[in-house]
Design a protein that fits this description.
- The chain is an alpha+beta fold.
- It folds into 2 domains: 169 residues, Rossmann fold; 153 residues.
- Helices cover 22% and strands 30% of the residues.
- The protein has 8 helices and 20 strands.
- The strands form 3 sheets. Strands 3, 4, 5, 6, 7, 8, 9, 10, 18, 19 and 20 form an 11-stranded mixed beta sheet that branches. A 7-stranded antiparallel beta sheet has the order 11-12-14-15-16-17-13. It has a two-stranded antiparallel ribbon with strand order 1-2.
- Strand 11 and strand 12 form a beta hairpin.
- Helix 1 packs antiparallel against helix 2 and helix 7 crosses helix 8.
- It is globular.
- It starts with 6 loop residues before the first helix and ends in a 14-residue tail after the last strand.
- It binds S-adenosylmethionine.
Length: 426
Amino acid sequence: MTTPPVATDLGEAARLRYQLAEHLAAAGHVRTPAADHALRTVPRHVFAPEVSLEAAYANDIVATRHAPDGQVISSISAPWLQADMLEAARIQPGHHVLEIGSGGYNAALIAELAGPTGHVTTLDIDPAVTERATHFLAETGYDGVRVVTADAEHLPARLIPDGGFDAIVVTVDTWDLPWIGALAEGGRLIAPLRLHGYHWAIGFTKDHGALLSDEPLIVCGFVAMQGDGAWNTNRRTVPGTGVHLSWEDGTPLPVDQLAPALTRQPTVTRTDITVGGQEPFDALMLYLAGALPGFCRLEVDLEINKRVLNPPPQHWPGAAIVRGASLARLAHERIGDGDDGKGRYEFVVHGYGTQGHVAAQEMAEQVKYWQRNHRGARCPRITAYPAAGRAPADTDHQPQVFAKKHTRITLDWPIVPNSTGSRSTG
Ligand SMILES: C[S@@+](CC[C@H](N)C(=O)[O-])C[C@H]1O[C@@H](n2cnc3c(N)ncnc32)[C@H](O)[C@@H]1O
């Protein structure tokens, strides 16, 4: 149980809290006076008694619960991400808000935003988490927050207000979005969604029964979903190679036949597309995941495999495609120091097996297509339709489709011609 903070701690806590709020505003994570007020008001350290005041107000997660194997299963999320997600939720006074995944702190921030006329429900599968959240919310004066123990995969109907929630904030990694029916038309849903293993926090508005993304996506990581909505990574190991392939979306393919291919030197297909050493390329990985049939993510156990995939993938897990007994994987080669001295790399595709060079060519073409048409766009527009509903009307261009259990998720990549990162332009 928490030791009540002593008076001197309170002064120091408030100083650190204001410092954090200022930092988050300066970095663009806090953009409204309401969010700024909430962050300056809610005493984060009371929800994190296991760490020092400095750690409670650092811009980092606080792990609060571990599985027997040491894995973090509950945490107070990083303040910058909480601020980004709360801003994206556009919570107004009087709103009915559902938080999925509890801890107490974020629910208290939501309660500040929804005000005395609002209604906040926070839900967690783990009774130890809800017990703790209930205790800290009462201690900090946010006892109006309704705390519920349940698996979010089966949201109890009694929790849903007439007309649905105005906002749902999901604070646990989720493979699917089974909550469209619980959201009011025009309401906001913010969720860290897994698409082929890539995690993006996405802000959606409900429009005619579907969820439309309308803000830049945020690359993020959250603790794993438990219960009936836990995802299956469909991880397969190529015998004797230490190479693992995962299909989180789409149908897993057989892998045993790949073993001979992975013991030989690969072909190398160049793309002439370059990237800086500090430049993220998450959008390319997501684009390839949606564009290439048979897409999977490749990891190598370096204890077993020091030689087969040489050089080993530098970004884990890497993008790969399987074509029968052949495989291609994305790699990148250093081609210089870059203007900032952090290195400049060219995307290359390694092909394994008799048809590996063909698969590599196919992947390289998609890298070039992304470069020509989509690199200038930070992220795709994402739409989630209820799986049971009608299929969306045909559009002029074909969106990428991820078929989930409860939803059908489409990605539309805006056409934004871009020449940066092409080798010929330096
Ligand atoms: C990152 S923590 C939540 C952080 C919290 N919102 C805060 O104040 O920062 C994620 C939580 O999701 C919960 N969770 C995991 N699977 C769940 C499920 N199926 N239904 C509800 N909660 C779940 C975990 O028990 C964990 O406490």
